[in-house]
Amino acid sequence: MIGLIAVVIAALVVWFWPAAHRWVFGPNAAADQIVVSGNIEAHQSVLSFSNVQAPITELPFDEGRSVDAGTVLARVDARLYQKQLSIDEAALDAAARQITVSQSNLAAARSTVASDRLDLAEKQRDLQRDAAQLGAGAVSRQTYDLAQTAAGQSAAALARDEALVKVATNNIALAQANLKTAQARVALDRVTLSDTVLRAPFAGVLAVRQAELGQLAGPGVAIFTLDDLDHVWLRAYVNEPDLGRIRLGEAATVTTDAYPGHVYHGRIGFIASQAEFTPKTVQTHAERVTLVYRIRIDIDNPAHALLPGMPADATIALLPPVK
Questions:
Q1: Would residue 9 count as lying in a domain?
Q2: What's the CA dihedral at 274, 277, 278, 281 to 10 degrees?
């Protein structure tokens, strides 16, 4: 009985071994090449609205649609953000006008200072003249005291108005700072308003649509998953003995059951630096304990014929063994 079971197990191993081997490493190949199998993968981006939260008002495309870079994929209700922009644009206009007012005040203050200086010069001449005449007895002491008081008042007025010039100058600097702040707010409002429109960041195919009209969109709420079908690759594995006979950038030919007879051209774009166990889809113990290295074969896909998840085989020429 035990012998019969052993015979059955051996027969099953012989029967299933080619299928299990091909699942990971592809069909048998010539001694100077290897055939690896895997699935087509592509860069995927999950697209969502950033910095805004509002109901979706426009969602023109369904899954499977090819779109160009910059295509409008969705819009949200932008009325609140447009209103905020209008408010901040009004504040910007006020800030610009405040600079004009402050500049006018500075000009007036400088004119007053110039008048004060002329008045002070005149009062000082009167004081000097009265001082000379006071010594000769030509003017009274009271006249001299009044001239002295007038000169002092004129000097005080000059000092006061010079301080007002400094205030007017500082007001201009403050108005300019307020203008920059207002400009920054308007610029931020415009960026936020632009974020109410979701555009395709690159040309691709809408793989998944995760939203509906009227749904509340916001940061982190997925709207579409976009596949970049211009840049696809084949994820596959090679045995350790073959690792030393392939190189980065080496050419590979790729075929798929979906398009029999058609050959796609690719190159090895990545070779893992660490080994890993054979993928768990292989159920035999012998294969599970085998160490393999993951590779990525970048494939030209201008017609978008190769789609994510599609199984494919790649043939790679082996370099001569290192002696």
A1: no
A2: -130
